[in-house]
Structure formats: structure tokens, C-alpha cells
Amino acid sequence: MSHSTPLQETTERRDEPRMSRKQIALAILALSVGGFAIGVTEFAIMGLQPQAVADLFGEVNETTMAQGGQLVTFYALGVVVGAPVLALLGAKRERKAYAIFLLGLFAIAHVLSFFAATFELMLAARFLSGLPHGAYFATAALMAAQMAGPAKRARAISVVLSGIAIANLTGVPAVTWVGQQFGWRWMFAVVAALAVLTILLVMVYAPRQMPPAGASMRGEMRGLANQRLWVGIILAVVGFSGMFAIYSYISYIATDVSGFGEGMVPMIVLIFGSGMVVGNFLGGWGSDKSVLGTVITAMTLVALFMVLFGTLAHIQWLMVLLLFLIGSSASMLGPSMQTHLIDTAPKAPQLAASFHHSAFNAANALGAMMGGWVIAAGFGLRAPAYAGATAATLGLLITLYAIYLTKRAGEKV
User: Fold this and answer.
1) Does any domain span residue 250?
2) Tens digits of per-residue pLDDT, 285-324?
């Protein structure tokens, strides 16, 4: 038996004003600028990690490299904690106003990051910066899906998520260069300014949008009693972690394994980002045809490319090509996993949407820790790629189980 999804239910509401295609496009693009800001802060710190470690610790070695990974981990932990809590608080709120509120918190946290004087204060500021991340994306994804309609919901979500991918293509390399030239902390000032810009764009272009009738924190909590949702969350955590196992240490891999100069790191980050842009839109296109079929394809490719990366990273042109392919295949998971998680919990759309970002950033934290562990254990800078391939293989097995549960529920795979 087929059931309507929460996105279909919201898109069928008739109490919102009708919008032209141009108005819808501008509103969704305005929301995606927030994703761009989030993408910059989430990924630029990885390329600037050597500068941050040298500034905060006074030296760079295997021990401080692993500690520097905590700048990634603590932001991710903030997302893991903040996404479900703030999504619950926003379950009954008008979505446009709530998105603006979350962007305001995000901007303030980045001002605090800019001025954080010690490693401990920086970790606290990174944690605070991560708190609004998932709830913003959950709110923005639901807004975009409702405006676009059920036939184009995954593609609308992919446009919102494309902010992250485009940030990796343009914003992250640019901010990495700025950080190398003028100081790594300027990344936080740039992100704060982008958050303020997004607030202005959302105020102008996005429509007011009420949540579905009957939405409540209690209803969202009841919607969590769902095996498919929790399997999907585990799948997202495991599946995404492989990418972060190598990307968290990409500047070290590029210079120490591949032999690139430090000045090439922004270009290498740009190439990874271009792969993410391609993968994000491929994932949105594929997910409107088969959500979990797209996940299977992406997970298989990630595992394959990770093994090849670990083996061939010393050959510069192959390292760059494989990094592009890892970015594109891993990013196909974004729209597909976001759509899958929402579909698994029709009574908890806001919370389910936020769990995608909790899972993604739990994977971010897990991947950074995995990479740090194998490096600190003395296995070298190629080892994170093999750890990532192992995680992707496990994710593939979990996907097969998710397909079984979906078919058993009578839903489209």
C-alpha cells in the first residue's frame, strides 16, 4: 500500500498564496545562500587546519594534527545536538521567521569564533556555531519542497543543499586563500557576513509558510517510533563518514603524500567542491526516480574511489581526479538521504528533516576521528582513505536492509 509523504501533504495545502515560477526560484535560491554560508564554515576549516593548529598550539606534528581535527568535530557535535532540539522548537512556528532566527544565531556564533583567544574557547564557539545548522536546513528544505510541489521535491531540496556544494566549489577555495594570506580567523568574519546577507534575502524573497495543520512537538516526538527512520539515520552516519575521514586531513595529504605545495591547497579544495556540485544535482535528479537506488549507486562508488585514492594518492593527477570522483559520489547521498529520512517519518517531517543534518555531522565528527585515529596510530596519511572505504562498504550493507524495510512497508524504493 502506498502512503502520501509529509512533503506531498504540505505541498497540497491551499492556504498559502500561489507563487509564480520566478518567485519560487528566487525564494529557493535565497534559502540556498544560507546553505552556502554553512558550507563555507563546515569545510573551509579543513583547508585552514595547518594555520589554525600552528596558531593555537604553536607547532604542527602528528599529535597537534589529531587535536586540530577537533575543530571539525566540535562543530559537527553542535549540529548533532542542535538539529533535533531546535527542529522540535520550530515544529509549530511559521517557517520563514524561524529560518531568520536560526540564521541570526549562526551569525552571532561566528562573531564569537572570530574573537576566541584559546583552543578551548574556539572549540566552544565551533560547537555553538553548529547548533542552528541542521534546524536551518530542515526548515529550508521543507519550505522549498512545499513551494516546488511533490513531483519536484527532491530537486528543490537539492537546490537548497547545493549551497554546500557550491561553497566547496567557490567559497571554500576563496576563503582558504584569504585565510592563508591574511589569517585563518577571517573565515569566521566572511561566514558571519554571508549569514546576514541570507537574512536579508530571505526577508525579501521567501514567503511566509505555516507548518501543516496539527503540527506539534508531541506529534513530532511520536513520529520517532519508526524503525525505518533509525535505520536511515545510521545509514547516513556510516555512509557519509568515509568522505570526512580523508577530507578532514586533505591539506596534509595533498602536501605530504601527493607532493603539492601549500599554495595548491585552495585549487585542490576547489576541485573537490566541483565534484560536490555535480554529485548534488545528480543525486537530486536520481532521487526523484529512485531514492534508495541512488544511495546504492553512490555508496558503491564511494567505496571504490576511496580504495583507489589510498593506493594512488602519490600520483598527483590521479589524486586530483579521484578526489573529484569521491566528492561527486559522496554528494549524491545528500538529496537522497534527506528525502529518504523525511519519507520514513510522515508524522515528524521537521524532526526527520533535521536528522539528516545531525547524521551528516555525526559522520563529519566520526570521519574526522577515524582519520585522526589511524594517523595517530602511525598508519600514515593514506590510511584514512582505507578507513573511509570500509565505512562506505558497511553503508552499502545497511542500504540493502533499508531497501528490504521499504519494500516490506509497501513504499517506493
Assistant:
1) yes
2) 888 888 899 999 999 999 999 999 999 999 999 999 999 9
Question: What does the buried/exposed string (b/e) look like for 16-25 if buried means 16 or more CB atoms within 10 Å of the residue's CB?
Answer: eeeeeeeebb
Sequence-ordered list of residues with C-beta below 8 angstroms from that of 1, at least 6 positions apart, any chain: 410
**Cα dist from 400 to 10, 201, 235, 302, 410, whole Å:** 29, 41, 10, 16, 16
Domain CATH number, residue 27: 1.20.1250.20
Average pLDDT over residues 218-227: 73
CA distance linking residue 75 with residue 361, whole number of Å = 8
Domain span at residue 161 reads 6-408
Q: Which three cell numbers stand for residue 319?
A: 589524486
The Cα 182–Cα 168 span in angstroms is 20
Q: In angstroms, rounded to a whole number, what is the distance separating the alpha carbons of residues 223 and 324?
A: 38
d(CA 354, CA 115): 29
Rounded Cα distance, 107 and 401, in Å: 40
Q: What whole-number distance in Å separates Cα of residue 244 and Cα of residue 230?
A: 21
Q: Residue 10: pLDDT above 80?
A: no
Counts for the chain of helices (H) and strands (E), in that order: 20, 0
Q: Over the Cα atoms of the chain, what is R_g?
A: 20
Separation between Cα atoms, residue 361 and residue 412, nearest integer Å? 27
Name the percent of the chain lying above pLDDT 70.
91
Report whether 77 contacts 365 (CB < 8 A). yes
What is the biggest distance separating any 2 CA atoms in the chain, rounded to whole angstroms?
Answer: 62
CA 219 and chain centroid, separation: 26
- Residue-wise pLDDT for 328-348, tens only, equals 999 898 888 878 887 887 777
Q: What are the distances in angstroms from CA 169 to CA 139, 271, 274, 306, 360?
A: 24, 7, 5, 20, 19
Kindly report, residue by residue over 39-51, the tens digit of the pLDDT: 899 888 877 878 8
The Cβ of residue 1 has, within 10 Å, a number of other Cβ atoms equal to: 5
127: pLDDT strictly greater than 50: yes
Asked whether residue 216 carries a pLDDT value surpassing 70, the answer given is: no
Residue 126 and residue 73 in contact, taking contact as beta carbons nearer than 8 Å = no
* Res 410: pLDDT: 81
Q: What's the structural domain count of the chain? A: 1
Residue 1 counted as domain residue: no
The predicted-structure confidence for 68-124, as pLDDT tens digits, reads as follows 778 888 888 898 889 888 988 887 788 899 999 999 999 999 999 999 888 889 899
Q: Is residue 315 part of a domain?
A: yes
Residue 413 within any structural domain of the chain: no
